[in-house]
Design goal:
The complex is a heterodimer of chains A (115) and B (115).
Chain A (H helix, E strand, L loop, with lengths): L4 E3 L2 E4 L5 E6 L6 E7 L5 E8 L2 E4 L8 E5 L5 E5 L8 E8 L9 E2 L3 E5 L1
Chain B lengths: L2 E5 L2 E5 L4 E8 L6 E6 L5 E7 L5 E3 L5 E5 L4 E6 L8 E8 L8 E3 L3 E6 L1
Parallel strand pairs in B: 2-11
Antiparallel strand pairs in B: 1-3, 3-8, 4-5, 4-9, 6-7, 7-8, 9-10, 9-11
The chains are: A mainly beta (115), B mainly beta (115).
Chain lengths: 115, 115
């Protein structure tokens, strides 16, 4: 597609349920990133994919969070047993790699609300 | 390791006034620096980037930024603010290859423009 696509755009879930967030990167972008943005705060790095491997998972806040990527395509971020503190906007970005001067292109985000 | 500090979480200017948003970085290697803008309920859009080609970088919507190595700064400016510039602005530095080239963001600066 023309840009990074994320779905759903909004998700309301009950505490304790599992959720899956999807990201479709720009075609040809080998690098994919997930970030979390809590209300009124900056972007918190979660995980980085190069192709379908994840060399950097250092930002995943707990073992309830996991992500996978199929080839150089779709990625899913899964949050198990959601907690209220998981409420945030989850942003996905993709870029050409490994050029350091290349910018990342962001999706519109998924707003997750845990009630 | 790289890091970014944005001075001032909120900046308010009058329409037509100079916009100055401050960003200081820390990097042990020559940095790649970016400014992104986020309008309400939207993803991040690239304003401009510094990739060592020129110290004064011009971006979209009349914004520009100057890389000053001696001051470790990459401040964003615009000569004359428009109402449409009201948004959240993020400065970011690209981490090294050993960190996957992920973008490390500052906390953001919310720009308000008064009529």
């Amino acid at each position: 597609g023309a840009g990074v696509s994320q779905s759903p755009s909004n998700k309301v879930t009950e505490k304790g349920k599992d959720v899956e967030l999807r990201c479709d990167p720009i075609s040809g972008h080998t690098a994919l990133y997930w970030y979390r943005q809590r209300l009124g705060q900056g972007l918190e790095f979660l995980i980085y994919f190069q192709g379908n491997s994840a060399p950097d998972k250092s930002g995943l806040p707990s073992d309830r969070f996991s992500a996978e990527r199929t080839g150089e395509s779709v990625s899913t971020l899964t949050i198990q047993r959601t907690q209220q503190e998981d409420s945030a906007v989850y942003l996905c970005a993709s870029s050409l790699a490994p050029g350091m001067g290349t910018e990342a292109f962001f999706g519109q985000g998924t707003r997750l609300t845990v009630v | 390791a790289q890091s970014v500090t944005q001075l001032g979480s909120h900046v308010s200017v009058s329409e037509g006034a100079l916009v100055l948003l401050r960003c200081n970085y820390s990097s042990s290697v020559p940095p790649y620096l970016f400014w992104y803008v986020q309008y309400p309920n939207q993803g991040l859009q690239l304003l401009l980037k510094y990739t060592s080609a020129a110290t004064l970088v011009k971006g979209i919507n009349g914004f520009e930024a100057e890389f000053k190595k001696s001051e470790t700064s990459f401040h964003l400016t615009k000569p004359s603010a428009h109402m449409s510039d009201a948004a959240e602005y993020f400065c970011a530095v690209r981490a090294g290859y050993n960190q996957g080239g992920k973008l490390i963001f500052g906390q953001g600066t919310e720009l308000s423009v008064k009529p």
